[in-house]
Amino acid sequence: MNKLREILKYKSMSIIGNYKNVGKTTTLNYILKECISKNIILGLTSIGVDGEGVDAVTNTYKPRIYVNKNTIIATASSLVLGSDITKEILELTNITTPLGNIVIFKSLSDGYIELAGPSINTQIKYICDRLKYYGADLSIVDGALSRKTLGSPSITESTIFCSGAVINKDINKAIEKIVYEANILNLDKVNDNKFYEVYENINSKKVSVVNNDYTYKSLDINTTLSSSKEIIDSIDDNTKYIVFNGIVTDDFINTMLKSGKDYKNITILVEDSTKIFLEKDVFEKFIKLKGKIRAINKVNLIGISINPTSIEGYSFDEKYFIDTIQSKTDIKVFNVMSF
Predict the structure, then answer these.
(1) Within this chain, do residues 286 and 257 fall inside the same structural domain, yes or no?
(2) DSSP state of 196
(3) Which of 139, 151, 168, 209 is least buried, going by the fewest C-beta atoms within 10 A?
(4) Are 104 and 87 spatial neighbours (Cβ–Cβ below 8 Å)?
(5) How many domains, in total, are found in the chain?
(6) 102 assigned to some structural domain
(7) Using one digit for the tens of pLDDT, what is the confidence trace for 279-331?
(8) How large is the average pLDDT for residues 156-167?
(9) Are residues 232 and 329 in the same domain?
């Protein structure tokens, strides 16, 4: 795969990871470097802090973020003041962070930066739109640990998922976890045009039940986390879909399996696959028992970036690690250490 060509099909992209030190910043720096010679203007922001030389949690070295002239950057005001690159301030936003309000600026020289962006998804979407407004050909959001909701198609058009050896010292267990999480992110979209007509009326509700004749009812609940029994009590033999605009958890699936309800003709629909918070054994048990889960909006997962070396001092056989993951998914897998 020509990685850059695939990336540049889209106007916005998130880089997300399932553990610290899996290579998110290295992946980002590769994209930054490749864009230099092609006169591509990048927009950058982050969820959480990134670009610091030493990880604040693990106290280990991290690659810093190096930007070129004309990059459009959104970061906290204190980090803007601390950067030695020459800047043109474009916008002072009202979005607050612990490190100050978000400032959007244009780099007028090359240099290192630290990123600290918004923590709320709607704010990130706003910042991406503003980066595009100020001239970015591609806006990239560097994600924080386990904030996979950043990959939601409501925020960015495409996503790269980063993982690696650090998640488990057993190579086969690491492969199993990476493949599961990548395939969940890549969950199929429901193929039902009639449903999407109905969804226009229920997309602001936490949970709704849609019947076989496409009549529906929305439940009066504030969160999906503690409402498993109420949701399951609302379904019957006429139920076609249970529609979640919150997260789906192990508790809900386990409660459904134990309920005695006939769930095999019911499809659970999530807003997108970043809202699925299921352990592998729970998800696989549900699917094995003929349960069905689909996405309303599909995450556009364009690549899996794998780091075969762990910060803990061990490495996996690169070829076996990468090739085995690739054999178990349709998404293109690449070795971050080859960048």
Answers:
(1) yes
(2) H
(3) 168
(4) no
(5) 2
(6) yes
(7) 999 999 999 999 999 999 999 999 999 999 998 899 999 999 999 999 999 99
(8) 93
(9) no
Distance CA 95, CA 178 (A): 34
144, 47 Cβ separation under 8 angstroms: yes
Q: Are 137 and 9 within 8 A, CB to CB?
A: no
Amino acid at 19: Y
* CATH number assigned to the domain comprising residue 215: 3.40.140
CATH number at residue 118: 3.40.50.300
Query: Percent of the chain scored above 90 by pLDDT?
Result: 69
53-62, 115-124, 280-289: range with lowest mean pLDDT: 53-62
Residues 200 and 223 in one domain: yes
Over range 209-228, report the average pLDDT.
92
pLDDT at 86 over 90: yes
Range of the domain at 153: 12-186+299-338
303 three-class SS: strand
Is 6 inside a domain boundary?
A: no
Number of alpha carbons in the 13 Å side-chain half-sphere of residue 48: 19
Report which of 241, 262, 153 is spatially closest to residue 190, judged by C-alpha positions: 241
CB of 270 closer than 8 Å to CB of 252: no
With tokens 């790269």, the residue in question is 160
- What sign has the CA pseudo-torsion 306, 143, 5, 182? positive
Q: Could you tell me if 312 and 244 lie in one domain? A: no
